[in-house]
Amino acid sequence: MTGMRTDCDKRHEISRGDFVISLAGRDQGRIFIVADVCGDGYVLLVDGKLRKVDKPKRKKLKHVSYAGGRCSVDTSTLTNRKAAAEIRRFSESGLAPTVS
After folding, report:
1. Which domain does 34 fall in, by range?
2. DSSP three-state, residue 77
3. pLDDT at residue 90, rounded to an integer
């Protein structure tokens, strides 16, 4: 049965405005908003506190995981205050997975 794909192999296609969780690095376990997706396997992440909108964190796609939600604010009009509020709202809603 080699070469057979299961549902577990399918990954959510991460796009602008998605909530993601960092899986590696000093920011491991933090929730971020995807500000942009670079074509070379990287994403730009913001949270409004640690990573500001004017200086996003560049991280490899394999080091983030889709958290199961989407930001209601357009990422082109995103500010630090709006990003922090959206992440706080997402975390308090109970939809955010916990990473140990």
Report:
1. 11-92
2. helix
3. 92
